[in-house]
Specification:
Layout: H1 14-22, H2 30-41, E1 52-56, H3 58-61, H4 63-72, E2 77-81, H5 85-95, H6 102-109, H7 115-118, E3 135-141, H8 150-160, E4 161-172, H9 178-186, H10 199-208, E5 211-225, H11 228-238, H12 253-267, E6 276-289, H13 304-312
Parallel strand pairs: 1-2, 1-3, 3-4
Antiparallel strand pairs: 4-6, 5-6
Helix pairs in contact: 2-4
């Protein structure tokens, strides 16, 4: 790896990340759906026309968010991908409209949409890999922070995006679960989760991967709980600890009771609107597929693919 590149996330166990990516789940995590909905709202700032797009790992990113994405851009042909055939089948089942109709179903499940867009027929999702350089957008909700090699993943997405196309993504930032991290540190326990990459490092990685004009922003989602059991149940449903130095064995009911008591005593001391506070830092990113550049030399060799891309560029791009 180039020594000038930012350090990649150092605390993700590759095997654990693989298992998480290939695990079949009954429904998309609630937190991912919520972040996907907020990410969709950012499309109002995008003026570029998106004719073709890819929703990366729909079951993880959110099946309801996928439908909302399609409803926002009814003229866009959306591709989708999943890590296994079983996960794809489950995602396909969950994005099928209910019998009461797509528009009404979206209103019930997701929230407000205009009556005009509710009546617009949605194009079917295409479950196949798109051709290289064929997409106007890659949409990747809540995937990067669980990748063992995020720089390679960014480069893989870039290979699919056409010149002047874009990448939109979201992931967790380093302040996520800070209350639980502090608790584990006080108890001298191994970390409850992997380290998360800073927003500025993601921007550097986008540049290193060949993108241009990266735009990053961040927000915090604070959840409040009245029970440690419910807090831990949600965390178990939303993901797994990918830290290589996580506790290696199986912990029993006695340790679980100890954990719940520690949460009640320590985190409940930071009372927030009547409950235990848990913070998630969410990073949103947007970047453009850079136009090919040819270094000026006495003799330059240009591949046929690069030449095609340069000829297809607009004069002012």
């Amino acid at each position: 790896m180039n020594s000038e590149l930012p350090p990649l996330p150092p605390t993700i166990d590759a095997l654990a990340a693989y298992r998480l990516e290939h695990q079949c789940i009954n429904q998309s995590p609630w937190l991912n759906e919520e972040i996907g909905k907020r990410m969709t709202q950012r499309l109002q700032w995008i003026k570029q026309r998106v004719q073709t797009g890819l929703d990366w790992n729909v079951l993880n990113g959110g099946t309801q968010a996928h439908l909302l994405l399609k409803q926002h851009s009814p003229n866009t042909q959306w591709f989708a991908c999943e890590s296994t055939a079983q996960r794809q089948a489950q995602a396909e089942l969950l994005i099928k409209p209910a019998s009461l109709g797509v528009g009404a179903w979206l209103k019930e499940k997701i929230g407000r949409i205009s009556s005009n867009s509710a009546n617009t027929p949605l194009k079917p999702t295409i479950w196949q890999n798109p051709s290289p350089r064929s997409l106007d957008m890659v949409w990747a909700n809540m995937s990067l922070h669980t990748s063992k090699d995020p720089l390679s993943l960014l480069q893989k997405w870039r290979e699919l995006i056409a010149v002047n196309g874009m990448l939109m993504f979201s992931c967790l930032g380093p302040d996520s679960l800070m209350e639980l991290r502090n608790l584990y540190q006080e108890q001298a326990w191994p970390s409850p989760c992997q380290d998360f990459t800073d927003m500025h490092d993601w921007g550097d990685m986008l540049i290193a991967a060949g993108y241009t004009e990266p735009v990053m922003d961040v927000e915090r989602i604070t959840l409040s709980y009245t029970s440690a059991k419910v807090l831990l149940r949600d965390l178990a449903q939303w993901g797994h600890n990918l830290h290589p130095q996580r506790f290696a064995g199986l912990r029993g009911k006695k340790w679980l009771a100890q954990l719940e008591l520690a949460i009640e005593e320590k985190i409940a001391a930071q009372m927030y609107q009547g409950g235990m506070r848990l913070t998630f830092e969410v990073i949103y990113g947007h970047a453009i597929q850079a136009s090919p550049r040819v270094a000026v030399k006495d003799t330059s060799q240009i591949s046929l693919e690069v030449m095609k891309q340069m000829l297809q560029q607009k004069p002012n791009s």
